[in-house]
Structures are given as C-alpha cells and as structure tokens.
Design goal:
mainly alpha, 143 residues, 4 helices
Length: 143
C-alpha cells in the first residue's frame, strides 16, 4: 500500500465548531443561572420576586455580554487544537452558533432582541475570530 492511499487527517471541523459555539452559549446561560441562584439563596435571601427578577435582568445583561464573549473565545480556542487550517473561519463559526442560540433564545423568551445583543454579537464575532487568528499564527501549517 502506498502512502497516497493512507487516510488523510481531517482538517476541517465544522460540526464541532457549531457544537462548541452552542456549548459556549449554554455555558453563559448556566453561569447566569448559577449567579442568580447563589444571590437568591446564599447572599440576599428573603427579597421579593420582583427584586430577584430585576437582579436576574442585570446579571443577564452583564454576564450575557462579558461571559458570552469569554466563553466564545475559550471554546473557539479549545477547537483550535483540532483544526489544521481555516482557523479564523472555524472561530467565526463557533461565534455564529453561539449568536444563533442567543438570538433564538431571546426571540423565544423575550419576543424580541434587546439592544445589548448587538454588542454581544459583535464581541462574540471578535472573540471567535481572535481565537482563530492566534491559532493561525501559532500553526506550522499555513492557514
């Protein structure tokens, strides 16, 4: 058997990129829920439901933007260990999947998209692309 017939390593991981993007957004949601639960049951026990709802909105607005960006970057970086080429494109796909889940969830839950989602979307795209650029620079294979 010649080396030409040997299986070639997979270079692209588009499905995995989508999965990592979804995991980034789920991680953001879990973080928001965890912060709200800790606040409700350990820090500020006994407030009204309206107070907890207001706190949840504030936390969601902050963690949704900051945490979503961080998780998108981290999951895109995690993916880069498996990607041999097109690093930036893979990072952007991670971001797009996270954005799709975020916007879809907002439309389902809020029946609209708050203005903060525009900032979050831009930051997630930057995070995914940045993870790809960093990986491309470190890769011995030309991306």
């Amino acid at each position: 058997m010649t080396s030409a017939s040997a299986p070639q390593p997979r270079r692209d991981h588009w499905i995995r990129a989508v999965g990592y993007g979804l995991l980034a957004e789920v991680s953001t949601i879990v973080t928001i829920i965890a912060i709200v639960m800790v606040y409700r049951y350990l820090i500020a026990n006994g407030l009204s439901d309206a107070d907890y709802a207001a706190f949840g909105e504030r936390v969601g607005g902050i963690v949704g933007i900051v945490g979503g960006t961080i998780y998108t970057f981290l999951f895109a970086r995690l993916l880069m260990r498996r990607v041999a080429a097109r690093h930036v494109a893979h990072g952007v796909v991670v971001a797009l999947a996270a954005i799709a889940l975020s916007v879809g969830g907002s439309l389902a839950g809020h029946h609209g998209v708050p203005a903060g989602y525009i900032v979050a979307t831009i930051l997630k795209l930057v995070a995914g692309a940045t993870a790809g650029v960093l990986a491309a620079r470190a890769s011995p294979v030309a991306a």
